[in-house]
């Protein structure tokens, strides 16, 4: 409840009480040549099976927009013949075959223009945008990087939820809303207030960590003291998740929006990989944070105390460890990690009121696959899920990629129910 209250205050401060619902999905962009708008250029979109999805022509400001029928993956093509004389694509890639549109998202697509005949290392703001003539190796390389990037986003949230489960036994379905909160707070400070994205992200992570601490102190800790059973607490977390999600919808609206900074950033070619610099920096931050938390769990006294509480809370308390303090620390770390996951996810695909809920099942899949309550298991499970989701599109339709990942989860758990790194538990 505390999380919902603070979220309402912060969102209403910057966004106002608006109840706008989703306006629908669309592909959009702005064509410019050295800062000058380029008008009259034709853009068309189609679905992955080749069905036309719409077309548009850039206006006097260089802007174009193609409403699409729903979320999914589309192919977007710029008609090179319609470009003005002397203007060309600097990356020689008029066809973007894998542009993903989320539910309610207004997806920005970048076609970098310059003097005809020039080339440069640039591309769309998301990996996986090669021409139809690209080799299958290039497509695999793009999907491999995209899978690793998505795996790091999942891993940040999965590590937090795994630590919380390991120390309290609670399966927290409201954790996805902490991911969403990270993206929304960053949007509030970056877009509404006008702060730089990096500073907005740092503030968001700090607020996420603080809310993690206070929600355990004021709510979950109180339920533990009343000896509320774990099934009841899990059901409460589901209700809390629904409440917070619709609070977000009321204040933020149903449409997907983008941060003000690094919105449609051109990609840079690194060998076979086409990577937007913002994604590369986000990957570095995620790796450093994951490594720091993992090291702290192994090499510090607090980490050892956390592992002791996860193994046997009663024995840990008898040996002088303040169990409530350790659990509160875990909630603080979990809240900060979830918020950071939301910041990176928002920069990757845009911010929406249910962005955390949309990946919650994948987070649980990663934690379950790696082994519930194990930090290393959460990281390994996230890597498997992230890579399989992207690479599976080489053989199955894009719309089924999450289904395929969950299918692999079921198959693995049939042979190893405790997960890859989980320990067998005696029942009865």
Automatic annotation (TrEMBL):
Localization annotation: Cell membrane
Superkingdom as given in the UniProt entry: Bacteria
UniProt keyword annotations, A-Z: Amino-acid transport, Cell inner membrane, Cell membrane, Membrane, Signal, Transmembrane, Transmembrane helix, Transport
Membrane topology reported for the UniProt record: Multi-pass membrane protein
UniProt signal peptide: 1-22
Family: Belongs to the binding-protein-dependent transport system permease family. LivHM subfamily.
Name assigned to this protein: Branched-chain amino acid ABC transporter permease
Organism: Dactylosporangium maewongense
């Amino acid at each position: 409840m505390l999380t919902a209250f603070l979220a309402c205050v912060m969102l209403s401060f910057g966004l106002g009480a608006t109840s706008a619902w989703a306006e629908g999905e669309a592909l959009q962009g702005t064509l410019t040549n050295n800062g000058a708008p380029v008008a009259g250029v034709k853009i068309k979109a189609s679905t992955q099976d080749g069905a036309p999805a719409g077309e548009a022509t850039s206006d006097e400001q260089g802007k174009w927009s193609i409403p699409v029928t729903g979320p999914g993956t589309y192919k977007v093509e710029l008609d090179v013949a319609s470009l003005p004389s002397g203007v060309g694509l600097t990356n020689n890639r008029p066809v973007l075959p894998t542009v993903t549109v989320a539910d309610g998202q207004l997806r920005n697509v970048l076609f970098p223009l310059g003097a005809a005949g020039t080339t440069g290392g640039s591309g769309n703001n998301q990996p996986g945008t090669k021409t139809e003539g690209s080799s299958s190796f290039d497509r695999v390389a793009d999907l491999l990087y995209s899978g690793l990037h998505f795996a790091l986003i999942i891993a940040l949230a999965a590590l937090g939820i795994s630590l919380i489960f390991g120390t309290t036994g609670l399966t927290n379905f409201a954790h996805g809303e902490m991911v969403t909160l990270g993206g929304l707070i960053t949007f509030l400070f970056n877009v509404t207030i006008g702060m730089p994205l990096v500073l907005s992200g740092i503030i968001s992570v700090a607020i996420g960590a603080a809310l993690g601490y206070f929600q355990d102190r004021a709510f979950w800790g109180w339920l533990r003291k009343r000896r509320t059973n774990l099934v009841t607490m899990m059901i409460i977390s589901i209700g809390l998740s629904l409440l917070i999600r619709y609070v977000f919808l009321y204040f933020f609206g149903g449409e997907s929006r983008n941060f003000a900074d690094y919105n449609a950033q051109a990609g840079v070619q690194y060998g076979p990989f086409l990577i937007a610099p913002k994604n590369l920096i986000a990957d570095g931050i995620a790796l450093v944070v994951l490594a720091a938390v993992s090291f702290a769990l192994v090499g510090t006294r607090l980490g050892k105390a956390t592992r002791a509480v996860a193994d046997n809370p009663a024995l840990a308390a008898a040996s002088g460890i303040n169990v409530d303090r350790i659990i509160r620390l875990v909630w603080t770390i979990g809240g900060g990690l979830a918020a950071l996951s939301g910041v990176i996810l928002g920069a990757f695909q845009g911010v929406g009121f249910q962005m955390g809920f949309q990946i919650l099942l994948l987070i649980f899949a990663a934690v379950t696959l790696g082994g519930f309550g194990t930090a290393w298991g959460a990281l390994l499970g996230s890597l498997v899920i992230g890579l399989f989701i992207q690479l599976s599109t080489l053989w199955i339709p894009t719309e089924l990629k999450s289904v395929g990942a969950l299918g692999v989860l079921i198959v693995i758990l049939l042979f190893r129910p405790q997960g890859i790194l989980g320990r067998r538990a005696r029942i009865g």
